[in-house]
Amino acid sequence: MKKVLTSLFVIAFVLISLHGAYALEFSADQITKHKGEGITSKIYMKDKKFRIELKGQPGYTIMRQDKNTMWIVMQEEKSYMEMTLDPNQKPKVEEKFTGEISRKLIGSENINGHPSDKYEVTYKEGNEVHKVYQWIAKDINFPIKTAAIDGSWSSEFKNIKMDKQPDNLFEVPSGCKKISMPMMPEM
User: Fold this and answer.
1) How many domains, in total, are found in the chain?
2) pTM of the predicted structure, to 2 decimals
3) Bridge-partner residues for 53, per DSSP?
4) 120/76 Cα distance (integer angstroms)
5) Over the stretch 9-19, which tens digit does the pLDDT of each residue have?
6) CATH number for the domain including 44?
7) Residues 6+ apart with CB under 8 A from 3
8) How far, in Å, CA of 154 to CA of 132, rounded?
9) Which end of the chain has fewer CB atoms at under 10 Å, N or C?
């Protein structure tokens, strides 16, 4: 459970990079790498709603910015856990990174079949300054890839399908019972 929650928070952090995607509806495969470990997931987005299905995990997570809520759904147990979205963890879909200091176009590349502009972005989080590369696909105006310049993490979207997403993807299925969050040891 600890590994699943950690993975979800890494993915939530990476979703911060959804540059200019506020009104988009899409589904995509997301490959996230953090400190050498890879996580593959399926992402669905509709307005301020996200659904994240981690490969190899029986459940999934729904993040609802419109309700400031996150649900972890465990299908096999027909149950779910609910928590308030932490402002530092919830996906942000803004024109730029929160705390962005600078953005510099450094070139163009083709990423997963999409012509993309590559930017070097500097942003401040708390007292720390971070630098990332961000590739914005020109054909779909979407941040197809984001990577820390120091190589500590990256996120890449593949098989992007810009299409309407059904509302029921972003709701807890009927018949699921709400359960309490287990006590977690300090991380």
Assistant:
1) 1
2) 0.77
3) 42
4) 43
5) 445 545 544 54
6) 2.50.20.10
7) none
8) 9
9) C
